[in-house]
Design a protein that fits this description.
CATH class of the largest domain: Alpha Beta
Number of domains: 2
Protein name: Spore germination protein GerAC
CATH superfamily of the largest domain: Nutrient germinant receptor protein C, domain 3
Radius of gyration: 22 Å
Membrane topology: Lipid-anchor
Number of strands: 8
Family: Belongs to the GerABKC lipoprotein family.
Number of helices: 11
Keywords: Germination, Lipoprotein, Membrane, Palmitate, Signal
CATH topology of the largest domain: GMP Synthetase, Chain A, domain 3
Organism: Parageobacillus caldoxylosilyticus NBRC 107762
Structural class: alpha/beta
Length: about 280
């Protein structure tokens, strides 16, 4: 397909999960006349506002497949409901709530050009944090006093991966810089207190590191270098990469990975205390 000189490369690749690709393309969407447009908009919106999907174009996919130091990942999509209903205008378009929908579901992991497993949403977030793909997302963390939750909006992430080979063993360091804002607060805490901010940043760093560690462990289980650790070693330590490149898939699961996360809390919003607390005063 990519040989055709007239082929456009600005389209996204998805993996049909649990069904055939033709059934995905036949599923009608209440908001879009053309199912492909519905999928395109869904994936584009999810990439901008939710960190659990991966946008992949054909050029990127080909580059990752042929690369010695990185394996590809592709977002999955599945049909929820009875497939035959989703193909019927009467059944799926003329009801207030469509009984059949297309949902982005998990991330397919490849080794070379073969599908070897799936990442769940949390693991996909870890992958996106480690590769600097998170543009904007909202997540919850427990309040420091464990009496509720807080919504945290991540506004930007920057990631760097450095690698080397020491005594025959590959070692990788992942450095994450992120900026976040505090959103909804369900507990009684003083957001003007410096120690509160320090605790929150530690908690955010810990949660992000946990998600990245989960994604790394799953990738090691699949023996698939989706993070591009091999490329990172090649850039930082060309001689070391020359020693390990020919049996990289065997060495990859034993790679020592150190994750360093630093989060900046930028804003607390226009309300620094709960209005309920202020009323009590």
């Amino acid at each position: 397909m990519s040989r055709d000189h007239e082929m456009r490369a600005d389209f996204y690749i998805l993996i049909a999960r649990g069904t055939r690709a033709e059934n995905i393309l036949k599923t009608l969407d209440p908001q879009e006349n053309i199912p492909a447009n519905a999928m395109f908009l869904s994936l584009e919106t999810s990439e901008k506002s939710f960190a659990a999907t991966v946008v992949k174009e054909i050029d990127d996919l080909i580059t990752e497949i042929v690369s010695d130091g990185q394996d590809p990942v592709i977002t999955g999509i599945k049909v929820t409901g009875r497939e035959e209903q989703g193909m019927s205008m009467e059944e799926n378009l003329k009801k207030v709530e469509a009984p059949v929908r297309l949902n982005l579901n998990g991330t397919a992991v490849f080794r070379d050009d073969k599908l070897v497993g799936w990442l769940n949403d949390s693991e996909t977030k870890g992958y996106n944090y480690a590769t600097g793909r998170v543009k904007n997302t909202v997540g919850n963390i427990a309040c420091p006093n464990h009496q509720g939750n807080m919504a945290i909006e991540v506004m930007r992430t920057d990631a760097k991966i450095k690698g080397k080979v020491k005594n025959g063993r590959p070692i990788v360091d992942i450095y994450i810089e992120s900026e976040a804002n505090i959103g909804e607060v369900e507990c009684d805490i003083d957001l003007m207190n410096l120690s509160t901010f320090t605790k929150l940043k530690r908690m955010l760093n810990k949660q992000s590191k946990k998600q990245i560690d989960m994604a790394v462990e799953k990738a090691k289980e699949f023996r698939s270098d989706i993070f591009g650790f091999g490329n990172a070693i090649h850039r930082s330590d060309p001689k070391g990469w020359a020693q390990v490149k020919h049996h990289w898939s065997d060495l990859f699961p034993d790679t020592k990975v150190n994750v360093h996360v630093h989060t900046k809390l930028q804003r607390t919003g226009t309300i620094t205390e709960s209005f309920q607390k202020e009323n009590v005063k």
